[in-house]
Specification:
Elements (H helix, E strand, L loop, with lengths): L1 H24 L1 H33 L5 H49 L3 H5 L1 H12 L1 H31 L1 H9 L2 H20 L1 H13 L6 H7 L2 H53 L5 H43 L18 E8 L9 E8 L15 H8 L7 E6 L2 E2 L5 H6 L1
Antiparallel strand pairs: 1-2, 1-3, 3-4
């Protein structure tokens, strides 16, 4: 019970996060998108009903043609409006995506600019940055998915009731025939998500090997050492590895999915046969036949879309949580004190030991010295002796693993880190 509560609580938090961020990125486009989604929910149902009345009115001798003409004018007007709305929706999506990307990029740049240097020393953190940046579009997707799911639920409920008023068992069969699709699609989506995470490092390697030959900064070294073929071979090797894995999964999915699609559309063949029999028996009109087929097709399409969107929502929920986790990372060193240093402080290293992340060898071990105010010193040593490391520690880009660094006999951590770097 606690796991279920935690699961839905996590989804609710991510929905709030996604909607809040999307709304903050552009209030105007957010509200416009909401109005468009509401319009596209109800107009198709109205169009299907109007077309039924038009067809029935044409074949009935006693029908008032003024009514048919009125329905036809409304139908064509809604068709035109739907077309114009689709074009406007494309414009809103393009502009909104630009503003949302700018907003999230700004948040990410601001967050990354304050990260400790140790953050960039870890390959796993590079994976985290790449994964977070690749999930920018999730912010928009999660917001629209919520509205799409609500729209589809309304459509399914209305369409199901309409189908059931004709033949209740056809409505039920249409929904039940989609269950195999829902189960397999969920498994396939989960597998793709696992594969994406497993391939992050290989994708980074592929991008590096593929892009290095186009980097002007390294062309001299590549040509001097004649290592161009090395990068080309590595690129082909990684690309082939990823291609084989993804091709195998995609082939398997297409084969199984083809069989499931045939099963899904069987409900439309069923309603076609039943409706034709009723038309021949003069129990329903030709417009009702078209209406029944359209409604069953719409019920199947909307139910299928709902299942797909729920799967996407669950996948995005995982990705959005990872994006939130990245944004929530707080740099340790940036959590500095408030004390301001003097212009010429006394600097003291007291038994300082330090090694870089993921390394065993100490760069500094039990290092102690004092630099008095106004004293000028020079650091001399071989590469790797610790000269640059002392400067990095002094400006608190890193904290020592052991020991203490003091300014005017006060721990460096009690000072404002930005004020220290300006001295």
């Amino acid at each position: 019970m606690n796991k279920i509560r935690s699961f839905f609580g996590d989804i609710a938090r991510n929905i709030r996060f996604g909607i809040k961020t999307s709304y903050s990125a552009s209030k105007m486009y957010f509200l416009l998108k909401c109005l468009i989604l509401l319009s596209t929910t109800f107009i198709p149902l109205l169009n299907i009903w109007l077309w039924k009345e038009i067809l029935n009115g044409i074949v009935k001798v006693e029908t008032l043609y003024k009514t048919v003409i009125l329905y036809l004018i409304i139908y064509l007007s809604l068709k035109l409006f739907t077309y114009l709305l689709a074009r406007f929706d494309e414009y809103v999506n393009d502009r909104y995506s630009d503003e949302l990307q700018f907003y999230i990029e700004s948040v990410m740049m601001e967050k990354t600019s304050r990260m400790d240097l140790s953050f960039f020393d870890l390959a796993s953190m590079g994976d985290k940055v790449r994964h977070a940046r690749s999930n920018f579009d999730i912010m928009t997707d999660m917001t629209w998915l919520v509205f799409d799911i609500l729209s589809e639920i309304i459509n399914i409920a209305a369409t199901f009731l309409i189908v059931c008023t004709y033949k209740w068992w056809i409505g039920l069969a249409t929904v039940l025939l989609l269950i195999p699709f829902m189960i397999y699609n969920k498994k396939h989506t989960d597998k793709l998500l696992r594969m994406e995470k497993e391939q992050i490092r290989d994708n980074r390697k592929r991008d590096y090997y593929g892009g290095v030959l186009f980097d002007n900064n390294v062309q001299f070294e590549i040509k001097l050492n004649n290592i161009g073929n090395y990068f080309i071979d590595r690129y082909k090797e990684v690309w082939s590895k990823l291609y084989k894995i993804n091709k195998k999964e995609q082939f398997r999915y297409n084969i199984i999915n083809a069989g499931i699609v045939i099963l899904n559309v069987s409900s439309e063949f069923l309603i076609l046969v039943v409706s034709v029999v009723d038309v021949v028996g003069k129990m329903i009109g030709i417009g009702d036949l078209q209406y029944n087929i359209s409604m069953v097709a719409r019920l199947r399409e909307q139910t299928s879309k709902l299942m797909n969107d729920i799967n996407r929502f669950l996948v995005n929920n995982t990705r959005l949580r990872e994006l939130q986790e990245f944004i929530a990372i707080e740099p340790e060193i940036e959590k500095s004190g408030t004390k301001l240093p003097s212009q010429n402080p006394k600097i003291e290293f007291c038994g300082v030991s330090f090694r870089y992340p993921n390394t065993e060898q100490y760069v500094l071990k039990d290092c102690s010295f004092v630099i008095e105010p106004h004293e000028k010193i020079g650091l001399i040593g071989l590469n790797g002796a610790g000269k640059s490391t002392i400067i990095k520690l002094m400006f608190r880009f890193y904290d020592p693993e052991e020991g203490q660094i003091k300014l005017d006999d006060v721990d460096l951590k009690e000072y404002d880190v930005y004020a220290v770097r300006k001295v």
